[in-house]
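A quick aside before the break. I want you to see a complete sequence-to-structure record at least once, exactly as it would be stored in a machine-readable document. Don't worry about memorizing anything.
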Amino acid sequence: MADKITALYCRLSQDDMLQGESNSITNQKAILKKYAENNGFLNTKFYVDDGVSGTTFERDGFKAMMSDIEDGKVGIVITKDLSRLGRDYLKTGELIEMTFPDYDVRYIAVNDGVDTFKSENEFMAFKNIFNDWYARDCSKKIRAVFKAKGQSGKHLCPPIYGYKKSDTDKNLWIVDEVTAEVVRKIFRLCIYGYGPTQIARILTEQGILTPTAYALSQGRDNGRHNAKLHRWGTQTICHILERLEYCGHTVNFRTHMKSYKVHKIIYNPQDEWLIFENTHEPIITQQEFDLVQEIRKNKRRLQKKDELNPFSGMVYCADCGAKMYLRACSVSFQREKKVV
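That is the input. The structure line, written in tokens, reads:
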């Protein structure tokens, strides 16, 4: 197996950082490198996931390692302990007992004394369960802190587009005048009768930076940018028009995750939101926000000459209750010739 890769896998999560240097990436690399050298394992390669939870296997370093395993390039996988591979006992057990043997990969967890080449490791399943319980316990504690913070009226998310953190108080949002003016423009265009798609086209044509592009220009990278970085999207406009935070209010508990293992975001119904009014400086007035919500309930049409009637979608027929639309047409009248 000398021609195959000895994969040295390291992982560090936010929770592990609280335990100090013992679980740091630097420490893990040193332990794995020394172990490989002492035991004659050659052709070593590090695969690293820094700041990623062990309850998910959607990790770049892990997926790169699995890709090499599936291609038959890896002969041995070594981790500091079982928890570095993962904290989901079902998935971790499947990897060690089914996936790795299927690809003829030897797995070693240094500190836990696990080596699939030497023994069956009867207690390995219990260690995986303990690692899973640790992740569950951490999740409960984090959720409790998160809930208490949200109920106290503090923001549970970073500042949205139009705001930035205060230099003196990290929990306080202050207006970012550059992006706040764009937010005001979006609301004004909506009040004038333009739909989200039309607003997105106008902002793109004017060369206004999208929220992601602006964040990158300020040295912030959320890793979500794509080829359409400088093109405003309809969903982005809709998202901005729906944010009550622009009126100066804090809105908590809009979403939740199914569990500490399933990181899918679920949107809560509006009656479960917790709203704290007047917690920061508003960008638009409450009247403007309410007017926009009322306008967006009704579909408004531009006329053929790109003109919009301000009453479009807001006037109804007194007889049948249907919406009334403005239609301009030319009517020619033919004069009857009087026959004498």
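Two observations worth writing down. The longest helix spans residues 124-151. Confidence is low (pLDDT under 50) at residues 330-340. We'll return to this after the break.
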